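User: I'm putting together a small comparison set for a docking exercise, and I want a reference complex before I start. The sequence is below, and the ligand is iron/sulfur cluster. Could you produce the 3D structure with the ligand included, as structure tokens?
Assistant: Of course. I'll restate your input first, then give the structure tokens for the complex.
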Amino acid sequence: MKDKFGRKINYLRISVTDLCNLRCRYCMPKEGVCKKKHKEILSFEDIEKIAETFVSLGIDKIRLTGGEPLVRKGILNLVKNIGKLDGLKDFAMTTNGILLEKYARDLKKAGLKRINISLDSLDDEKYSYITRGGKLEKVFRGIKKAKSVGLMPIKINTVLIGGYNDEEILDFINITKDENIDVRFIELMPIGQASKWNEERFISNEIVVNNFSELIKVKKDNSSSPAEYFKIPNSKGKVGIINPITCKFCSNCNRIRLTNEGKLKLCLHSNDEIDLKKHIKNKDKLKNIIINSIKDKPKAHNLEDGKYITKNMVQIGG
Ligand code: SAM
Ligand code: SF4
């Protein structure tokens, strides 16, 4: 599928729930989000139907996200059914890793190829603070298990937060020395909970490159990846920086999102949504709506003008 700017759209991110077993301070309100009624969210059968339709139209990469995808009951079945779709080349999940030790083996067996893990601190107390109670050792055990069962390559995504984890950058980079793991620093976006945060929390991830002269730029693994990659000479993994605000990657954007309520989002940074759930019973109509909607994917976001989305990431699937 191509949009009207000629961009090939082949990557779908599916949010399977907006519930989560953590309460990261920049993402979730302390009290969590209200559990939706069954009929308000897509059933697994609905998700499978929509995914199948997208794959038949040329989507070849799917990522499951949330909320925390591993808290949705029956997730392994969904993974199994999506994993066997003909034409799907890449199938991944973004998780906080808390339940990964328990699920890694079965996820791999069910057809998941790889995993991204969100991890903002390597210090027990700081991790517990930012996630409001998360246990870091569980994430480490999850990563170890994911590696041992071959859910590779593993990427760690770290949101850089001024005054919180900016002094841990070197520790994160050092992970890439001996482990075949990429660590990617992502700039905090002032959306949802984080929109109320003080300016000093928002730091540019340029500091990663500027302060660690050992890092050498390496070629991107694919042109639509939003990350710029660097490497310490002879290290096993890479260091990525993802800079959604100042450094736009819109001209190469190949992704679209499906929310757990069945809304199609053509751009993460737009409030616009197209309801796919109501057309789920009519396959042809669903196909046409998808094809026509994709054409209207916005050319670029307007974050520089302060036009941020009103929802929390947890409601969209970051
Ligand atoms: N629960 C899973 C996890 O944490 O990996 C998947 C969903 S979470 C919403 C996806 C990603 O969005 C996480 O890496 C999280 O750090 C990121 N995120 C959430 N709010 C953000 C914000 N305001 N700015 C930047 N990244 C954010
Ligand atoms: Fe949950 Fe992920 Fe949001 Fe943290 S970032 S609260 S783990 S959804």
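The first strand starts at residue 11 and ends at 15. Residues 136-149 form the longest helix (14 residues).
User: Thanks, that's exactly what I needed.
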